[in-house]
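Progress note, sequence design subtask.
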């Protein structure tokens, strides 16, 4: 998607979950299909679609080898009489095509971007490249695949529990950042949480990581969930560990990455039994301020001149403040159009900016929850982070948590 200069949308992993697919008796679309998407005259990208027929119908995923993204699932697929329709709602991606003569002639859309994309049967597929830090072979600890229920939502969550063979003093629950995320936190070919869980468990710390609601093997509605809903899932994970009959998991706490830092703060404030909390690149300022700050910083990194940067920052604040104030979608579209954003793009952005998650996030203030933290807390941020800027967010955390309970560090390289 073409970068925007007038409105910066919070960057998140563009994944979504598989839900139901329409059934059909035909199976001639099943298999792998490849095509090349032309983004600009100078830039194109190979895509590989996978269609699989199940007892409930078809499911579809997409690979983007250049980005080391594999198995990204569409949340909806319809295949009727040769007509194929796919949707990945969280990423605003759709694909519509017609299967004829062993070719799929179709159109790819993402937000305001639209281009033809024709597919042919894939000659070969590309697999994820193994990383040196990947967990392979036998491990010196126990691994269990588990499920637990969020009683307030009634949905099951699925995850992986790793723990040392001996006694357990500490257990961490990993909380993911923005965007639908699997238990392994698959991002650009990396499995961040799988690696972190392995490292911690080798040090004698048990780890529970789980698929976000509505992602992977977990049930629930992701599209309409907010940080508060995810905090409810986090506390369901905590309760599961406390009631798990096989082991005593010792002291249990949350480790939240990015938005997971906000989720962990909310969960901790709502659960007096949590023993510790770790924020990894987590927020210490409001969601609105995070987006305004990151927009300014990224445009500056891109080389925007000072006059244009000042103008752009003023527009960003006007738009985000309007969203915080509860502007309607129609009024927001008008505001975006006023700032010369193309109509299709304005419609797509207004949909995202008025979504339940975004509405909650921009209005959220982690200090409300951090001031209630009465347990040991560790906050770590990276000095080069362009999403959650380290200085102001660490300072926000320091202003909120009692000094004798808080340890902070900004890694400069």
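Output:
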């Amino acid at each position: 998607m073409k970068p925007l200069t007038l409105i910066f949308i919070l960057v998140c992993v563009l994944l979504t979950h598989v839900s139901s697919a329409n059934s059909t008796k035909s199976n001639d679309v099943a298999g792998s299909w490849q095509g090349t998407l032309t983004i600009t005259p100078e830039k194109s990208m190979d895509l590989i679609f996978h269609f699989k027929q199940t007892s409930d119908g078809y499911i579809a995923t997409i690979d983007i080898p250049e980005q080391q993204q594999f198995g990204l699932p569409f949340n909806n697929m319809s295949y009727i009489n040769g007509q194929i329709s796919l949707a990945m709602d969280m990423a605003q991606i759709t694909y519509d095509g017609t299967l004829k003569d062993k070719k799929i002639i179709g159109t790819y859309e993402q937000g305001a971007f639209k281009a033809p994309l024709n597919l042919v049967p894939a000659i070969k597929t590309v697999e994820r490249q193994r990383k040196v830090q990947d967990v392979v072979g036998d491990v010196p600890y126990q691994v269990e695949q588990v499920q637990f229920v969020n009683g307030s939502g009634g949905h099951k969550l699925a995850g992986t529990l790793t723990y040392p063979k001996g006694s357990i003093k500490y257990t961490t629950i990993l909380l993911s950042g923005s965007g639908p995320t699997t238990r392994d936190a698959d991002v650009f070919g990396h499995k961040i949480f799988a690696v972190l869980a392995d490292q911690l468990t080798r040090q004698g710390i048990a780890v529970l990581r789980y698929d976000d609601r509505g992602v992977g093997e977990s049930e629930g509605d992701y599209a309409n969930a907010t940080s508060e809903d995810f905090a409810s899932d986090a506390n369901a994970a905590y309760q599961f560990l406390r009631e798990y009959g096989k082991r005593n998991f010792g002291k249990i706490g949350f480790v939240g990455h990015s938005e997971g830092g906000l989720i962990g703060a909310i969960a901790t404030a709502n659960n007096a039994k949590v023993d510790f909390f770790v924020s990894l690149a987590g927020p210490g300022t409001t969601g609105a301020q995070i987006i305004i700050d990151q927009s300014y910083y990224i445009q500056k990194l891109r080389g925007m001149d000072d006059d244009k940067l000042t103008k752009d920052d003023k527009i960003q604040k006007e738009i985000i403040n309007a969203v915080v104030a509860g502007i309607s979608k129609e009024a927001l579209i008008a505001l975006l159009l006023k700032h010369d954003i193309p109509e299709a793009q304005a419609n797509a952005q207004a949909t995202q900016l008025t979504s339940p998650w975004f509405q909650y996030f921009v209005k959220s203030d982690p200090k409300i929850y951090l001031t209630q933290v009465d347990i040991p807390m560790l906050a770590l941020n990276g000095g080069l982070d362009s999403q959650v800027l380290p200085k102001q967010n660490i300072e926000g955390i320091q202003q909120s948590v009692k000094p004798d309970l808080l340890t902070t560090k900004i890694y400069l390289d």
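Residues 1-27 have pLDDT under 50 and may be disordered. Work on this subtask will continue into the next period as scheduled.
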